[in-house]
Amino acid sequence: NEGKKSALQYFSYWINSVRIHSPASPLALVGTRCDGSESRDLYQNVELFIEESILGEYGGIVRNDADGLSFFPVDNETGSGVENLRSVLGQVARVEASAREVPIRW
């Protein structure tokens, strides 16, 4: 399918761009413009694409356990989903910060 191939190229470009500068950092995939009227089927199709095409190729993807997804759907207009994303990223940041040695001079 041409659409999947294009989407995979897009994802690969951005994930590789991030990994070049920060290879060990966790990565959260965010689906914007999800206004809540989308069916659960659409989210499951996106999830299946991510599982088949991205998760095996790239590690360190942050899971959205609240929605049972490998991405975070958010609504740009209402902010729906943003609080969950913010909370998960805060938890990830705390774990990452506690796992790194920081010189005392910092």
Please explain how this structure is put together.
The chain is mainly alpha-helical and 106 residues long. Helices cover 51% and strands 4% of the residues. It contains 3 helices and 2 strands, in the order H-E-H-E-H. Strands 1-2 form a two-stranded parallel ribbon. Strand 1, helix 2 and strand 2 form a beta-alpha-beta unit. The model has no long low-confidence stretch (mean pLDDT 87).
Low-confidence stretches: none
Major sheet: arrangement of strands = 1-2
Task: Tally the beta strands.
Answer: 2
Order of H and E elements: HEHEH
Q: Whole-number radius of gyration?
A: 15 Å
- Terminal-residue CA separation: 50 Å
Largest sheet: 2 strands, parallel
- What is the residue-mean pLDDT, rounded to a whole number? 87
List the defining traits of the structure above.
single chain, 106 residues, mainly alpha, two-stranded parallel sheet, globular
In short:
The protein contains three helices and two strands; from the N terminus they run H-E-H-E-H. It is mostly helical.
Describe the SSE topology.
Elements: H1 2-21, E1 30-31, H2 40-55, E2 72-73, H3 82-99
Parallel strand pairs: 1-2
